[in-house]
């Protein structure tokens, strides 16, 4: 009888551990969204889940909106919105190192390689993966 109780207790404990493992820890799937100043001529955002940037042209001036970014480990890039003003934002997906910081800002350009104009204030973001 003592062996049966010990086996039952062990099985109950194992089932409890399995239930905890199946449930796991709380989900960190919530996305942290960082967006630039709303008064800029282009709106730029960074989404920490997926390492996505969006940029949206807010002025009908025939120019494109560009979001520029740089990380604290030397990587940089650009996301261009050339689909006209006041349309849905353009999304750019990157794979960035987690647990790092980055700076991003928006500019307006005449063409892909034109001079930067209307530079927004820079925003700091965290690549937390959530």
Written description of the protein model:
- It comes from Streptomyces durocortorensis.
- This is Secreted protein.
- Keywords: Signal.
- The chain is α+β, with helices and mostly antiparallel strands and 130 residues long.
- The chain has a single domain (33-127), classed as Sandwich (Immunoglobulin-like).
- The protein has one helix at residues 2-23; strands spanning 33-35, 42-47, 52-57, 64-71, 76-81, 90-93, 100-109, 123-127.
- The strands form 2 sheets. Strands 1-2-3-6 form a 4-stranded antiparallel beta sheet, with no helix packed on it.
- A hairpin with a 6-residue loop joins strand 1 (33-35) and strand 2.
- The model is unreliable at 1-29 (pLDDT under 50).
Q: What layout of secondary structure does this protein have?
A:
Blueprint: H1 2-23, E1 33-35, E2 42-47, E3 52-57, E4 64-71, E5 76-81, E6 90-93, E7 100-109, E8 123-127
Antiparallel strand pairs: 1-2, 2-3, 3-6, 4-5, 4-7, 7-8
Features:
alpha+beta; 1 helix; Secreted protein; Immunoglobulin-like; four-stranded antiparallel beta sheet; disordered N terminus; 130 residues; signal
Shape: globular
Strand order of the largest sheet: 1-2-3-6
- Intertermini distance: 51 Å
Question: The CATH topology, please?
Answer: Immunoglobulin-like
Helix content: 10-25%
How many domains would you count in the coordinates?
A: 1
Identify the CATH homologous superfamily: Immunoglobulins
Protein name: Secreted protein
Organism: Streptomyces durocortorensis
Signal peptide: 1-29
Keywords: Signal
């Amino acid at each position: 009888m003592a062996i049966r109780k010990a086996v039952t207790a062990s099985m109950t404990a194992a089932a409890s551990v399995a239930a905890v493992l199946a449930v796991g820890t709380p989900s960190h799937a919530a996305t942290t969204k960082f967006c630039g100043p709303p008064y800029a001529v282009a709106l730029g955002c960074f989404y920490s889940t997926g390492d996505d940037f969006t940029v949206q042209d807010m002025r009908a001036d025939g120019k494109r909106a560009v979001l520029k970014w740089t990380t604290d480990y030397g990587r940089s890039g650009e996301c261009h919105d050339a689909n006209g003003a006041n349309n849905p934002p353009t999304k750019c997906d990157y794979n960035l190192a987690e647990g790092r910081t980055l700076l991003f800002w928006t500019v307006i350009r005449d063409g892909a390689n034109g001079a930067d104009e209307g530079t927004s204030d820079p925003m700091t973001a965290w690549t937390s993966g959530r």
